[in-house]
């Protein structure tokens, strides 16, 4: 039986990558889905492809999650089209990777706006309906950068650590009102975002092989592996999970030394 039938979900940053995989899997599990993304054309293409493949109501809405007005407009359009939102996946994010003293105020502001504050602003938009109906799930896509850090990636881990704090803070606040708020922390996942990191190296193919070799399973995470856990957290089966952070990083963050076995 479809695990999300009758539910309506917004997935931010769903035009591609992990968000697109979550939107696809949610629709396959019976949910109506909003593909919300700053990339309007790609979002429309992704939504149309998922709708065709699944037969579900899947719509694309253009939204910049660093802009409260844009979020309000997206939420209103989503609600008008599909009704109150049962599930929000805060997935949209950007890599801002710098040596701290080389980073600018604009780097900091962009990273915090997209990787942290956007999740709060989107959650704030959907919470009143969820509270009124005493039902809802919010899933924040964080990163293993929320538990461990790498040199040269500032201030991304600052935002991702804070997103874990946001998850826990809101989870406890609203657990008694029927709302489940949890997180997923993927490790290196095979998306355009990861490819952008490889492409910055002089030999992108070698950079990819090196990163694959450092993952205990010897490969990158697949977006559909993140989507599978998102289905659980979105479903009624996970309602006793409060402020959890499900790590899907192939064991990288439990390893004692970077090159340890
Ligand atoms: N790929 C990885 O290795 C990895 C690992 C850990 C965590 N993550 C996290 O997973 C999430 C998805 O990453 P991905 O790899 O699929 O990235 P991606 O770049 O492939 O997809 C991100 C999507 O977010 C959208 N987006 C960016 N800024 C936006 C904004 N201001 N408003 C609305 N949409 C916006 C982009 O247009 C894009 O479609 C991010 O939060 C990222 O930090 C990724």
Please tag this protein with its features:
261 residues; alpha/beta; Rossmann fold; two-stranded antiparallel ribbon; 9 strands; 16% strand; binds nicotinamide-adenine-dinucleotide
CATH domain class: Alpha Beta
Q: Please tally the helical runs, counting DSSP H or I stretches of 4 or more residues.
A: 8
Q: How many structural domains can be distinguished in the coordinates? A: 1
CATH homologous superfamily assignment: NAD(P)-binding Rossmann-like Domain
Report the average pLDDT across residues. Answer: 96
Please compute the radius of gyration using only Cα atoms: 18 Å
Walk me through this protein's architecture.
- The chain is of the alpha/beta class.
- It has a single domain (8-191, 224-249), classed as Rossmann fold, CATH 3.40.50.720.
- Helix content is 46%, strand content 16%.
- It is built from eight helices and nine strands.
- It has helices at 17-28, 40-54, 68-82, 105-133, 156-174, 192-199, 204-214, 223-234; strands at 8-12, 32-37, 58-62, 87-90, 97-98, 136-141, 154-155, 179-186, 245-248.
- The strands form two sheets. A seven-stranded parallel beta sheet has the order 3-2-1-4-6-8-9, sandwiched between helices. A two-stranded antiparallel ribbon has the order 5-7.
- Strand 1, helix 1 and strand 2 (32-37) form a beta-alpha-beta unit.
- Helix 4 runs parallel beside helix 5 (156-174).
- The longest helix is centred in the middle third of the chain and has 29 residues, at 105-133.
- The chain starts with 7 loop residues before the first strand and ends in a 13-residue tail after the last strand.
- The mean pLDDT is 96.
- The protein binds nicotinamide-adenine-dinucleotide (NAD).
- Nicotinamide-adenine-dinucleotide binds at residues 12-13, 15-19, 37-39, 63-66, 91-94, 114, 141, 143, 186, 188-189, 191-194.
- Nicotinamide-adenine-dinucleotide is lined by residues 12-13, 15-19, 37-39, 63-66, 91-94, 114, 141, 143, 186, 188-189, 191-194.
């Amino acid at each position: 039986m479809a695990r999300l039938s009758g539910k309506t979900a917004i997935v931010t940053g769903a035009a591609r990558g992990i968000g697109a995989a979550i939107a696809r899997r949610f629709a396959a599990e019976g949910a109506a889905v909003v593909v919300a993304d700053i990339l309007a054309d790609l979002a429309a293409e992704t939504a149309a492809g998922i709708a065709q493949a699944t037969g579900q109501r899947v719509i694309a809405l253009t939204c910049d999650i660093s802009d409260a007005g844009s979020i309000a407009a997206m939420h209103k359009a989503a609600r008008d089209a599909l009704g109150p939102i049962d599930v929000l996946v805060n997935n949209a994010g950007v890599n801002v990777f710098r040596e701290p003293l080389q980073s600018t105020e604009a780097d900091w502001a962009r990273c915090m706006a997209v990787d942290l504050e956007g999740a709060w602003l989107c959650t704030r938009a959907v919470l009143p309906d969820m509270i009124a109906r005493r039902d809802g799930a919010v899933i924040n896509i964080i990163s293993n950068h929320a538990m461990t850090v790498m040199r040269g990636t500032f201030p991304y881990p600052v935002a991702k650590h804070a997103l874990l704090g946001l998850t826990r803070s809101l989870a406890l606040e609203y657990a008694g009102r029927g709302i489940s708020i949890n997180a997923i922390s993927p490790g290196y996942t095979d998306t355009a975002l990861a490819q952008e990191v490889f492409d910055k190296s002089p030999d992108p193919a070698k950079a990819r092989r090196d990163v694959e070799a450092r993952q205990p399973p010897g490969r990158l995470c697949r977006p559909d592996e993140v989507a599978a856990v998102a289905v659980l957290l979105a479903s009624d089966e996970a309602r006793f999970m409060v402020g959890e952070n499900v790590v899907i990083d192939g064991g990288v963050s439990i390893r004692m030394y970077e090159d340890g076995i």
